[in-house]
Amino acid sequence: MRFFNSKYYFREFLSKYLELTNFYKNQELMKKFLMLAMLIAVVSCKTDDVKKKIYNTGDKEITQADIWNGTFSPKRMNVLNSMNGDFYSLLNSENNVTSVDKYSYKTLEKVETIVSSKDLPELQNISSYSFNEDESILILGTNFKKIYRRSYSGTFYAYNIASKKLSLIGKDIQEPVFSPDNKKVAFAKDNNLYIKNVLTNTTTQVTRDGKKNSIINGTTDWVYEEEFGLVRAFEWSKDSRYIAFLRFDESNVPTFSMDITGNKLYPEQQVFKYPKAGEKNADVSLHMYNVGTRRTNKIALGDYEYIPRIKWSNNNNILIATTLNRHQNNLNLHKVNALRSSSVLLLNETDKAYVDIHDNLTFLSDNSFIWTSEKDGYNHIYHYNFNGKLINQVTKGNWDVTRYYGCDEQKKRIYYQSAEINSINRGVYGIDLDGNNKELLSYGDGQSSASFSDNLNYFINTYSSANTPPVYDLYKADGTKIKNIVNNDELKKELAEYKMSPKEFSTIEINGNKLNMWMIKPVDFDENKQYPMLMFQYSGPGSQQVSNRWNASNDYWHNMLAQKGMIVVCVDGRGTGLKGAEFKKVTQKELGKYEVEDQIAAAKKLAERSYIDENKIGIWGWSYGGFMSTNCLLKGNDIFSMAIAVAPVTSWRFYDSIYTERYMTTPQENASGYDDNSPINYANLLEGDYLLVHGTGDDNVHVQNSYRMINALIEANKQFDMFVVPDRTHGIYKGKNMRLNLYTKMTNFVEDKLINKSTKIKG
Question: Which CATH fold topology does 493-761 show?
């Protein structure tokens, strides 16, 4: 249920004011209040040029075709790759020709075309590219074949930029990476690791025991890819003398299989290793390959269950390996000496619940390092020396750092994104390494996200809010705006013709907590009427749906439902993110308990409002949200009369080990936590209307979840609706008109069960 800042573009890109009350808790009240006033003034200045409300009462109605045929798609920048110096590159496509082009951060003008497919007869299309370390060679990829959600095999070439020579690295290979000395390329194929010498055109096979559904070398298994976001599991040392890699022995991991119907006479089976909660995980080990001697040594790391990250320090011989125990609440950073094939502990971090895995470990020139942690209750940036001793905590406060962008050592300046303004907004900040001179560099409200140049001199800021479609601006690192790159004024004009209602942000007090909420009302809202209400949520640990950002497809769908005469509401309950560790981790060992209680309580409290029809309240969600909507309909059958669950988990016993046990421990240890919150065990409580949707090719949340729910409903003699979609994966999107068909089904269900049975004048 997990984006990655990768130079391989075939992977997913994910595609993401301190409250006054906090000031009144401090002793220096007046000083803090003045600081807040200054911050608001800065925010106002920075947002005036983009904050223009686009909502009005146009005459056009939103249609399903508008939503799914791209009518409301904003213009976006291509995913850019920062290069050495003040440059970046883009993979562009025009008239069936793809090219890698170089641009200047200073001017945003194209400097040169580095390579074009029209000049390479061997390549019909460039699907991905990555540079070697000094940017003299490109690795170009094509002919991709999908493995899992983030992994692909393909045909890869090395392109020498100076000589314009193209040479084949390999076919049906994964994750090719140049050595820092540019002489070799390491890659994975058929679960083994290889090294190709590009000077002699010879290939060395590093491992020989790789076998499908048994042994994997250099890449990861299904669950690591899905939950740790890790595909490539090997790393070159800085001096090109060693390759550190992970080996997965999944021989004893239980196998899951799915029938893929396709268009053939007989279905095919997809068979893969999938460790469910409490079941056997792959045995993962760290190995060090000496390129010169061609010898491999296994590295002892003590007791652990997972190795979610490996990364070389700035010492040629020292690798840092991250290990976790099975409960994921005890994390170690190990200093691995490649010369001695030994390791010592660098840093240990524990938590009562769990420790998150991230990619923020950054080594400075003296091998001191940057690390982020929730150990003070909020996610913050820390600076340690190479012996693991804390130098200082860089950021502090009752707010979370949400992204770490990098450290400019020359200026001793760190750049990051945080929810400091408040939990539904994101700002980009700069702060000195010693924790002084913090400055907001971006717009204050809404969502700002930065893409920095490699030397951290410039960044391209992506800004949006609920009222403002994406705006791309070029900035200097000190926060000086240089120029606008992309705005979306045309989309604003287009939307002005439609019946669009704004999201009304607020908080609602539920079970002793102020929860973030948005509400969408019909354009012609009349407080003397009563309207049906549909609640939308996801609710998974650390997630956020109530956020001041631009519309996604669901937001247009919700607006379409509003124009049909209903109110749509979203409440982020306990367990969701950006409000500190305690709020996020309160659901530990009880997924589906407190989150469900909050949604039920919120529905009841909202039903007290005179304009909401308490007899017609529905809820819907996808994945974790489907788990939630199902539970809410059952356990909240006195308030919810309808639910839609898309690709729901119905028992955490069926879901994967890493995600589930992070929050629940194992079923053997916590049986009641699993069973007391499983909707399968409460099918007899169904009183309202229920639509269950699932794709049979879902390798993430298996259709087994819905099949078991269906059986439970049948045994309880309960009537329900279902929509089973052949071969579709968790996103249920592939194929002509798939989303249009699905959302038409959902719209008809909402209209039939809520809208057409409600809306009445008070009294």
Answer: Rossmann fold (3.40.50)
